[in-house]
């Protein structure tokens, strides 16, 4: 249940930032942006939050999330939108998402991982 709540929080953050930057300021369609944000949320949760954050630290995981989000928007965006997404727009979106990820990782470390480790006898 903790992972579902965490995933919902992350999805809301990524969708809000993506809609703000991509749809409101750059004119990309709302539904396409929401789809792209959900794809990014799933990939970033598994790669950045489950694997990288657990194996390293918040700084490394945040930088990884910025890179992952930027590349995903830049490469998957044209498939979702049917037109190119400039790298600068993808990078701006990735950096803003990354700022939110810094705080999200603190939540993950305190509310999700600590309890998971206690359940399996870690601490």
3D architecture notes:
With 123 residues, the chain is mainly α. The protein has one domain (2-116). It has helices spanning 2-24, 30-55, 58-81, 87-119. Helix 1 packs across helix 2 (30-55), helix 2 (30-55) runs antiparallel to helix 3 (58-81) and helix 3 (58-81) crosses helix 4. Mean pLDDT is 93; it is low at 118-123. This is DUF2512 family protein. InterPro entries: DUF2512 (IPR019649). It comes from Evansella cellulosilytica (strain ATCC 21833 / DSM 2522 / FERM P-1141 / JCM 9156 / N-4).
Short note summarizing the structure:
With 123 residues, this protein is mainly α. The protein has helices at 2-24, 30-55, 58-81, 87-119. The protein has one domain (2-116).
- Which consecutive residue ranges, at least 5 long each, have pLDDT under 50? 118-123
Radius of gyration: 15 Å
Shape field: globular
Distance N terminus to C terminus?
Answer: 20 Å
Number of helices: 4
Tally of discrete structural domains? 1
| H-E string | HHHH
- What share of the residues lie within helices? over 70%
Mean pLDDT: 93
Q: What profile does the largest beta sheet have?
A: none
